[in-house]
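User: Some background: our group keeps a shared notebook of sequences we're curious about, and every so often someone picks one and asks for a predicted structure to add to the entry. Today it's my turn. The entry only has the sequence so far, pasted here. Could you supply the structure so I can complete it?
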Amino acid sequence: MNIVQIVFSPTGGTQKAADMITSAWDSPVRKVDLSDLGTDFSAISLEKDDITVITVPSFGGRVPAPAIERLEEIKGNQAMGLLVYVYGNRAYEDTLIELNDSAEKSGFRVVAGIAAIAEHSIAHQYATGRPDSADAEVLHGFAEKILEKINGNPEALSAPQIPGNRPYKKAGSGLIPKANRSCTGCGLCARNCPVQAISRESPKVTDSKKCISCMRCVAKCPQSARKVNGAMVKSVGLALKKACSERNENKLFI
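Assistant: Of course. Here's the predicted structure to add to the notebook entry:
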């Protein structure tokens, strides 16, 4: 039995949650990065007794489109799938059910789901520093329960009740980071953009139609030269205040 992470983590919080879960199993982990444009995902094929931890962030209650497209290229071959949806303390909406449908389409057997909290990628005042040590303890406990389920009878695993609605909610538009005067044109943002929305020849130029508002360019810039409009960030923060002010907890669907 192999442990495989399949992760789309533009700013690191989603990867951190995935690592907290798989570390509980004390086994080597193979990692598949869904944000890597250089990977031929159609060449990736899993085995039936593999445990895959498929982990994505929620963008406005939906799975980022590139993550879905790349996941569906992978050959699941009835490998066991633990679905992990990471969100910024607001709400699940349809992210987990959409991820469930995509995983099943790719041939994975969904055995459990987790809703995990990470720092909001735009309004950083919400879920700041999460997943934290308390989250790690909870996620370790979830991982142990999932392993108990798998070890019970791998051939007769029941599917969990995954929350969400079909049809999924309409995907919203996001905020587009732009380069300011501090930009040196180093091109690190362009090389790391998971959808090639930033010009490699002119890194200050962003294709707003390609940009998925993942904020990776903001997180990666060594000069802190890429920003989202401050007034828009403030507006987002105010809109989320009621839903995000109290600490939400991680949830297990098994």
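Suggested note for the entry: The chain has a mean pLDDT of 94. Residues 3-167 form a domain with the Rossmann fold fold (CATH 3.40.50.360).
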